[in-house]
Design brief:
Number of helices of chain A: 14
Number of strands of chain A: 16
Oligomer: homodimer
Helix content of chain A: 40-55%
Largest sheet of chain A: 5 strands, mixed
Largest interface: A-B, 62 and 63 residues
Order of helices and strands of chain A: HEHHEEEEEHEEEEHEHEEEHHHHHEHHEH
């Protein structure tokens, strides 16, 4: 605990407003009296703050609740549609931007394929997507809380600078500043795996206390939630498990080292291994699905799995086991019992998940792993886009903690 | 952030008292006005609380500071000797108990060798040590804040139950309850690696924000400090890195699996490897030091290192590299820049430390590892005993956060 700086009246007001808004958000419909009980604020303060929130259109009265003796209390709730946020997922093949309400519900989505684009052109695509969404709002940027971006790579979330995103060829790109200057709204940028973890904290109920959300796609990264807050690490690199070395004799990784988890467990690694396996077994379902150009996709691997193809199963199980090994390390370090998997590879489903779980259990202390649950992420929507929007809910409204 | 329960007047008073005491502890000698500034409390509240603390003997006035215009302010500080705490380190060969003041300074130490004792006899030894220290206090248990215990194994710190401590043959031992019933004072029990980390947060200045303190002895464990608080994990197993598998073809670990870090990097692993190396090189310094009973100690390995013995260096570097590999994983997961090593193996000094550092850097992302410092713990005293005492400073006075 650091000492709080002496709070000014203005800070106290903002703090109280965030407390009340959060009580409405998490517990609404709720009466003023119950908000006072939950927050520890006086009824007078709650009344004042609620008045302010209603004036700003953030909260409204929805009628009377059941009476508990006296007059039935008036119930309040957050007006979910009173503000919106632009959330952006700078994905491996597609950039997707969406307009979301205060519950992370998507109102409108625009996207562009970006495979093969260079770094400069990629930034232009981001601008196009944002401009398109703003144009679609009748009110321009009025009522827009801001823009949140989830991106692969290592991101300085304080300044919105992408320090390193290898597949986008971005180095020390001040994306947050670029967007804020152009659109005149607050902008927050975070690593995509961390944004996804924030989505789970912000939009799932009950809010998880400790959780690790692992995104397994072309890259592999984890978002760490500790005490219902996102943990960034000292250099915004917490959760960079994709570059844990799991095979000292392994192949070269795009980070320059050898045998990183990404070289054996990412979407690309799986497709590459599947192609090799298919060529060794020309009668397999996998071999059947090789395209005229000599290629396979993750979808092909999944189809082969569904058809019970043994070589597909072998390839997928091997990738899953490597991930399980790294998860075992995570369990040992953090002893966090709730681990959630998402990203393109997680669509491989059960055979992959079983291999991950099995290896994670075998490789970790039984006393620690017995209570661990490793699950696919709940299907609450596009986690990165939602998490990117949640970055703004935090900063602008105090609804989450990032 | 969870909603705070509505605070009662009593809770508010206790909270304010802890805030003020902590300001005195961290920033004393300090004036009442500066305490008010630091804590955000009103001068009236600070005056009341300080009066209470002085009445309890926890704080006193030490005279006037320099004037900044008006009348020179009266300075206050914590009376470090006003309370004491018993801190206990249930070490691998020795149980050590000490009486410490509020700064973790040891006033008196008692210890017993425990090598070879069974679980039941070990508990009796703990009782003997505590009884001896209490007998040495003229006032019995008056003014004694409580008893803190640092133990190997997995500990439920909420209930003071040792869930599993393999070398002590303890399973689900309710040590906290046993001691509290017998001595009638508060008791806190924590894993020794975590206690050591707490000592570094409580007694070193400035208080570290994020830190990993790794104890490398017969067992290997890490204490994780996140946001100046100890992180326990969901099942009090955070930091259990000793059972990370680093060598799939390795030898059996006392946990029942194979190739855990402890099988290659603990004190015992190093001594065993040194003995094997010495037998292969009968002319080495190491071989010279083999006892008539055919044994080597860690001290012998250190002496051979000092003499520049090549096989000792090889053995120690290998153990260090395995630890470095696991630290690289930690860096990837947590991105914590300050890593501190302690425990018996750390006395091997530079050749070992160099191997740890070198491997940790090679195995982790350069962007993350470039800012990492891996150092031997500062020589501020017996970290486990100090950390065990700090457990009480937390609970009883609010001076630290465990």
């Amino acid at each position: 605990m650091a000492f709080p700086a002496k709070a000014t009246h203005q800070q106290t007001r903002a703090h109280n407003a965030a407390l009340v808004l959060r009580a409405l958000y998490d517990h609404g419909p709720i009466s003023r009296a119950d908000v006072a009980r939950l927050t520890g604020l006086t009824r007078t303060t709650v009344g004042d703050v609620v008045g302010g929130l209603m004036g700003e259109g953030l909260a409204h009265e929805i009628g009377r609740g059941p009476s508990t003796g006296g007059k039935a209390p008036i119930l309040l709730e957050v007006v979910d549609a009173s503000r919106d946020v632009i959330g952006i997922d700078l994905g491996e093949f597609v950039f997707r931007a969406a307009l979301l309400d205060l519950r992370g519900r998507v109102q409108r989505t625009v996207e562009r394929e970006v495979g093969g684009l260079d770094g400069k052109r990629s930034i232009e695509v981001v601008h196009e997507l944002v401009a398109e969404l703003i144009a679609a709002r009748r009110s321009g940027t009025a009522g827009l809380l801001g823009i949140g971006v989830g991106t692969p790579g290592i991101v300085d979330a304080d300044t919105g600078t992408i320090r390193w995103a290898v597949n986008l060829e971005w180095h020390n790109l001040r994306l947050g500043e670029l967007l804020a200057e152009r659109y005149g709204v607050p902008v927050r940028v975070a690593n995509d795996s961390r944004a996804a973890a924030l989505a789970l904290v912000t939009f799932s109920r009950p809010r998880p206390q400790n959780l690790v959300a692992i995104k397994v796609g072309r890259g592999i990264g984890a978002g760490l939630v500790i005490g219902s807050e996102l943990f960034h690490g000292d250099g915004f690199g917490a959760g960079e498990i994709g570059h844990t070395v799991v095979d000292i004799d392994g192949s070269e990784c795009r980070c320059g080292r050898f045998g990183c988890l990404e070289t054996v467990a990412s979407s690309r690694a799986i497709v590459t291994a599947a192609l090799a396996a298919a060529r060794e077994e020309p009668d397999s379902v996998l071999a059947d699905r090789i395209s005229p150009a000599g290629e396979l996709t993750l979808e092909d691997v999944r189809a082969a799995l569904d058809a019970g193809d043994a070589s597909a199963l072998r390839v997928v199980a091997r990738a899953g086991r490597y991930l399980g090994q790294v998860i075992a390390g995570l369990i040992g370090v953090l002893d966090i019992e709730r681990i959630v998997l998402h990203g393109s590879v997680s669509r491989l489903g059960r055979p992959w998940l079983d291999a991950v779980r099995d290896e994670a259990r075998q490789q970790s202390l039984q006393l620690l792993s017995q209570d661990v649950s490793i699950e696919l992420a709940p299907a609450i929507g596009d986690l990165v886009v939602m998490g990117a929007s949640a970055l703004l809910l935090t900063d602008e409204l105090g609804l989450a903690v990032a």
